[in-house]
Inverse folding.
C-alpha cells in the first residue's frame, strides 16, 4: 500500500529548478569530455568518463522520481532526497580523492554537490 498526498506544484518548483541545472551540468560535462577526448585525450581519463556517465544517469532518474512526487507519492519524494544525498556524498568524496579526475572536473563535482545539498534541503523542508 502506497501513501500518497497532494503536494502543491509550487512547493516542488525549487527542486525541479535545481534538478534542471544538474541535468544541464551533466550534459555539458559529457560534451566537454567528448571534446577533450578528441583534442587532448589525457584530459579526459576513463575515471572521468565513468563518473560523468553515472552522474548523467542520476540526472535522468531524479526528474522521473520528482514527477511521481508531484503526483503525490511520498515514497518518490523520499527517493529524491535519498538519491540526492547519495549523489552529494559521492561527489564530495570523489572531489577530495587526489588524482581521481582532472581539476576542472573537481569543480564540476563541487557544483553538483552544492546543487544536491539544495535538493536535500528542499526535500526536508517539503516533508516538514
Amino acid at each position: 500500500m502506497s501513501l500518497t498526498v497532494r503536494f502543491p506544484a509550487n512547493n516542488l518548483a525549487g527542486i525541479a529548478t535545481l534538478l534542471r541545472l544538474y541535468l544541464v551540468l551533466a550534459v555539458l560535462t559529457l560534451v566537454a569530455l567528448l571534446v577533450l577526448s578528441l583534442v587532448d585525450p589525457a584530459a579526459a581519463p576513463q575515471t572521468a568518463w565513468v563518473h560523468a556517465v553515472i552522474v548523467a544517469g542520476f540526472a535522468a532518474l531524479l526528474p522521473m522520481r520528482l514527477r511521481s512526487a508531484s503526483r503525490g507519492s511520498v515514497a518518490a519524494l523520499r527517493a529524491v532526497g535519498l538519491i540526492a544525498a547519495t549523489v552529494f556524498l559521492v561527489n564530495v568524496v570523489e572531489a577530495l580523492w587526489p588524482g581521481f579526475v582532472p581539476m576542472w572536473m573537481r569543480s564540476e563535482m563541487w557544483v553538483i554537490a552544492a546543487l544536491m545539498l539544495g535538493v536535500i534541503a528542499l526535500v526536508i523542508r517539503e516533508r516538514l
